[in-house]
Amino acid sequence: MSESPDAHSLLSASSQLNLMEVDTIDDKEFDIPQVDTPPTLESILNELEDEEEPFLLEDTSVLNTDNIDAYSCDTSSLASSDSGDPAHLKRKRRTQDFNAPVHGSVVRQSLLKGISAQIVSAATVSGVIAVGTSHGLALVFDNNQALRLCLGTKSTGAEFGAVSALSINHDCSRLLCGFAKGQIMMWDLANGKLLRTINDAHPPGTAILHVKFTDDPTLAVCNDSGGSVFELVFRRVMGIRSCDSRCLFSGSKGEVCCIEPLRAPPDLRDHPITHYSLLAMASLTKILVIGLKPSLKVWMTFPYSKSDPSSVPQLAWQFVPTQKTVNPVLAFCKGDTVHFLLVKKEDTGTIHVIKQRQLNLVCDIISLSWINNRTLVLVDSHEKLQVVDRPSQEVLETLDLEQVQLVYNSRHFKSLATGGNVSQALALVGEKACYQSVSSYAGQIVYLGTKSAHIMALRNWRERIDCLLKQEHFVEALSLAWSFHEGTAKAVVGLYGDPVKKKGVVADKMVEIFFQFSEYSLKKCPDQGKIQVMEQHFQDVVPVLVDYCLLLKRADLLFNQLYSQLAENMVAKGVFLESLESYIVADRLGHLTTPIMRDLLAHYHSTGKMESLERCIVHLDVTNLDIQQVVQVCWENHLHDAMIYVFNRGMNDYITPMEANEEVVMGNKLLVYISCCLAGRAYPLGDIPEDLVVQVKNQVFEFLIRLHSADSSEEEEVFPFIRSLIHFDTREFFNVLAMTFEDFKNDKQALEYQQRIVDILLQVMVDNSDFTPSQVGGLFTFLARQLAKPDNTLFVNRKLFDQVLDFLCCPDDDSRHSERQQVLLELLQVGGVIQYNEERLLALAEKAKFYQVCEFLYEKNSLYDRIFDCYLRDPLRKEEIFSYIHNLLSMPGYSLKEKQTVMEKVLQHIQVSHHSGTILPVEHELHELLLDLFCRLSPQQILKFLQTSQHYRLEEALQYHHKEVSAYLLEKKGDFQGAFSVLLGVTKYPKNLKIDQGLQGSKTEKEDSKSTLTIVKDSLDNIIDLCHHSSENLYQQQREVLELTMKVLNCMSSFISLPAIIQRILQDPVYGTGKLAEIQGLILSMLDTFNYEQTLLETTTSLLNQDLHWSLAHLHAAVTKGLHPRQDYCYICFQQYKRRQDSVEEIIVFSCGHLYHFQCLQQKDCEGAICASELQQSWSCYKCSSSQGGRGGPFAEPKRLPSTSLAQVSGFVFVEATLSLQQEQSWDQLSSLYRGPSRLSILSELSYYHSNEKTGLIIPGQPGAENFQLKLSPPPLLEE
Questions:
Q1: Residues 635, 614: contact at Cβ < 8 Å?
Q2: Which positions fall inside the RING-type domain (predicted)?
Q3: Which of 349, 510, 539, 1114 has minimal CB crowding within 10 Å?
Q4: Rounded to 10 degrees, what is the CA torsion of 1125, 1127, 1133, 1136?
Q5: CB contact at 8 A, 767 and 803
Q6: Model confidence at 1029, in pLDDT bands (50, 70, 90)?
Q7: How far apart are CA 162 and CA 788, in angstroms?
């Protein structure tokens, strides 16, 4: 299919083309205009129907292409498509339901009944619709789907084949038809006249796959099944019409299967980029963009990524607004990825191509079309249509085109009408090609089916909403309408004007939906059943209405018309009131009408949801509430937060909530409330008005320092409010005061209140048995923090601190000892030490056994040795003394003198413990801790420590992975086998041992200098000692087996040769006595013999290899050496070897230097010459054979191999060599050149004489044979 960019599109509002109004179309009203050979409606229908069955059953793999014509190559597409191809009939179609609740139905699909009733396939859409048939006819329909022209005849179809491609120019005046057999015809659409028949535009024998007009009416392009692209230039000179063709791309460089010229819409015909006549071409491997004007030029090439070879390349141009300009964008794909290229014309006149973000899908795309400048329509290989928004890459809608029954162009890609002469790659792509079945123009896309044509267009915004309403999808309709209102919807059509007007139009539509939805929900509500079912029904409706009404800021509509309508149903009314809570709490709804508020209070009160009611009250505007009703509900139901909120916001009363209800005073709410009031924040949320902040603070302070409450009794103590808060939570109350005092730096009145509160606290809490030491300590800790501040203005009598100190450090009171010590310690840590005399404080702390306090004071004065005594005396921290010593000695920040003092103190106590044995008891943990220190700091002393100490546990000590230590412990445990394995591991990996020891700790200089061999020797000595120690504990049978000795020998054999091991053992003095001494000499002689034979074997092997190489090298050099004739004449005819200058003769040269003509040697009748065919011949020298008494005799002198002696003047002739007398003679001659004994024979003689002697090497006739030594040397070098 192709299209014409006429301004009067199919769906233009000003045109008369009513393709979408399918209900008004009557097939009987269409009249067929007069043409040259007008077919009747019945003939067209009957003809196409009769052809359906044959092509549905035929197998393309067995078609006889010689007999294919327009009637046998039946097709049902405009491009003679293959909807009946067996490959497509077998394709499995999967159904997939896609629900788009946000976007709704984006595309409207309509059947072109007027066209579908008369044709099997359609072709192109514009102001007119052109149709191509399999019989070579082109049918043209007007805007009302009435047949206007029938172009061509049946004879044309029989000659040219089926119509395979169509194209209409921009003014709908010309129609180009491409045919399956390669011809192109141009028709005048005004009168149906044939203007041109083009037979030589491209190579014959290929079908036309694409033919397309450009913006220039005299310029078109075509693409054939050979993969080539041609430019067609139409000319008219002296009334004669002609067409010039130029090849733009040859199929031999890569077959092009899709072309797409850039055609500008009517309003962009003057765009500067149109002057270049850009053409996009898609081959099987890459995309090309070329310019046809002013001269042919390639502007861009873009290779595909890896994809399925059967994927169909797709191209589509679209002008897209970008950065205040409009530029063309090329969309192309092959497989599942769509790429976008922005094409711009630079000021310099060059074309700049910019790659943009690609679109990744999960389907194989077979059709790609733009429906507007933001939306793409794709069809995948399963015939699923997908509408995609390009900026967001979101799939808006998916439709199933299975009922359309798309037709495919496989027959033309296989070029069946011309014999099927296409490549396998192009034929494979053609299996899914449907280029001519899809045509897009001005927001419309026509899809060609086997029996019908379907048109797709974007729905306008109202139609999309109405589609959802017809399906009773009100929630989705409201969501879609709101996206139109906010401008976030995709593929929007029909919303014009400024944003305010657009929002107003959409808002009116949403109001209509509100009432429809409300009415629908009441109508569909179940009359009978459980109340939960009815509540669930309205839960799906009412919150949606409330949400969108508030989004539109139409609370009046919500509380009046909608509430009145829903209040008819009590369940709907309850759901409505409860749904308001989330919006009130989120501060989206702050004002309620009086009837709504009254109903809200009554509903929550009746349902007992008082907490929800309280959350709502504290977020509503108090001025719109019935304060008396709300306060009464709050008092009755103890809604303290709501009551405080109403008093604060409604009456500016911040004191009454604190004194009116004793329960609140005893609760944590009052502490938070006081904290908020003193900090200027409202409770439970918000801020106090700025003009009331100071007033509220003063009122709260006055409340706290009241001597008595309003309705006090005689038994009431002074300052009841402060007492109550302290008893409730002392620490939190002081924290509230501390935070409040931070803001009183520049407020004189507040500072006076601050001092007053402190005085009251001291008066109430000091010397009062009602308060625990912890509470009193909390008070003085709070005061110490305040007094330690640099800008402190508080005054506290020092005597009070002394009283507190005496109270906390009382030695006669053993109760709460830890609590009192902790309170005093916190007091000192926050700066309270400046309030005391340190000497007196230290004396009291020691008397009270507050050792942590003593430690604090000692550390302050750097008396670290005395801290040591504190740890020893404190039973709770006595075990922490070693950690303290370790930290002090290892951590920086302590002087050398301080560390030395502590060390002396430690040593003093260790000596005392040695004599008394009471301070440092002997325990397993301490010895194991010392063992750990040895491992980390001095590993060389570990073994000595273990041998002298017995106070450790073997299992715990074995955890330290030290080789010698582990062996000692295992031996001590009785596991001799394990100890032996550990020591044996040292001999296997001595280097690793050195590394491990270096990592474990420092080593002395002597140990650092030990070599690996020294370590191995020491390890072997340890193994021998272990064997001596453990031999007494072994059974007699174990001694005989000698497992330990065998393991030693086996491990040594991996590193040292066996003869060396045996020789070392035999040379040891230990084995010089006993039975082993008797055979010691025999074993040593066997070792000598072994060493000799090993040396002899290695030398012999080396000599054999070298002699063999030397002999072969000389033989190769002798055989491949060139031949030099003795004379320049033949020894048979005695003429020059080149008898005539203009003749070319073959000559034969032998290794002996004799030369012969080939004809002479062949014709000579002699016994020694062996004649064979020209392909394989064996020769011998005539003269040499004659001088030896006959040719070929056993005593004939051998010559050079024939294969290397045969030559020809004009070149060399090589014949296969055979083993002949000549070769045997050559070998003997070669052997004579190197006469003399070989080294192999010398060795043979040496071994013979050696067999007659016990020791030594003897050669007869050589002086000094008894001292003869075998001298081995490499063979002499041979220069080749």
A1: no
A2: 1130-1185
A3: 349
A4: 100
A5: yes
A6: low
A7: 104
Q: Give the residue among 809, 727, 707, 799 at the shortest CA–CA distance from 762.
A: 799
444: part of which helix (H) or strand (E)? strand 444-448
**CA dist., res. 672 & res. 650, Å (int):** 20
Indicate the residue among 395, 427, 458 that finishes a domain. Answer: 458
Residues 284 and 219 in one domain: yes
Count of CB atoms situated within 10 Å of the CB of 252: 9
Judge if the upstream peptide bond of residue 684 is cis by omega within 30 degrees of 0: yes
Specify whether 503 is located in the same domain as 392.
no
Domain CATH for 168: 2.130.10.10
Same domain? For 241 and 182 the reply is: yes
Report DSSP letters for 1229-1256, one per residue.
Answer: HHHHHT-S--HHHHHHHHHHHHTT-SSS
Q: Which SS3 state, helix, strand or coil, does residue 290 take?
A: strand
Q: Give pLDDT tens digits for 335-349.
A: 889 999 999 988 888
- Burial tier of 826 (Cβ tally within 10 Å: 0-12, 13-18, 19+): middle
Q: What is the pLDDT of residue 404?
A: 86
Tens-digit pLDDT profile for residues 455-507:
888 999 999 999 999 999 999 999 999 999 998 898 888 888 888 999 999 99
Rounded distance between C-alpha atoms, residue 736 and residue 668, angstroms: 12
Strand segments, DSSP code E, in 278-374 are 278-283, 286-291, 297-303, 314-322, 325-333, 337-345, 351-360, 365-372
Interior CA angle at 623 toward 620 and 628, to 5°? 95
- The string over 233-250, giving b where at least 16 C-beta atoms fall within 10 Å of a residue's C-beta and e elsewhere, is ebeeeeeeeebeeeebbe
Q: With 0.70 as the threshold, say if the pTM is over it.
A: no
Identify whether residues 347 and 477 lie together within a single domain: no
Pairwise CA distance, residues 980 & 1176, whole Å: 79
546 and 528 assigned to the same domain? yes
Contacts of residue 1112, Cβ cutoff 8 Å, sequence gap at least 6: none
Number of domains composing the chain: 3
Q: 169-202 burial, b for 16+ CB within 10 Å, e for fewer?
A: bbebebbbbbbbbbbbbbbebeebeeebebeebb
Let me know whether 337 and 441 are in one domain: yes
530: domain range? 459-589
For the chain, helix, strand, coil in percent to 5 are 45, 15, 40
Q: Which residue, among 595, 570, 597, 594, has the nearest Cα to 581 in the 3D structure? A: 597
User: For residue 16, what are the contacts with CB-CB under 8 A and spacing of at least 6?
Assistant: 143, 144
pLDDT at 208: 92
Reported as a single tens digit per residue, the pLDDT across 978-1016 is 777 777 777 665 545 444 444 444 444 445 545 677 777
The answer to whether position 227 is within a domain reads: yes
Q: Amino acid letter at 48?
A: L
In a domain, 325, yes or no: yes
Mean pLDDT of the chain: 74
What phi and psi values does residue 1052 have, to the nearest 5 degrees? -70, -30
Residue 654 lies in a domain: no
Among candidate residues 407, 429, 458, the one where a domain is terminated: 458
Nearest-5° Cα angle at 784, 779 to 790:
140
pLDDT by residue (tens digit) across 303-336? 888 888 889 999 999 999 987 889 999 999 998 8
Q: What angle do CA 55, 403, 114 make, to 5 degrees?
A: 85
In tens, the pLDDT along 1047-1086 reads 666 666 666 776 777 777 766 665 666 566 666 677 777 7
Determine the Cα–Cα distance for residues 1057 and 142; give it in Å rounded to an integer: 105
Indicate the Cα dihedral angle 957, 959, 964, 967, nearest 10°: 80
Residue 237 pairs in a beta bridge with 240
- Could you tell me if residue 528 is inside a domain? yes
Q: Is 339:409 a contact under the CB 8 Å cutoff?
A: no
**DSSP at 560:** I
| Domain shared by 329 and 247, yes or no | yes
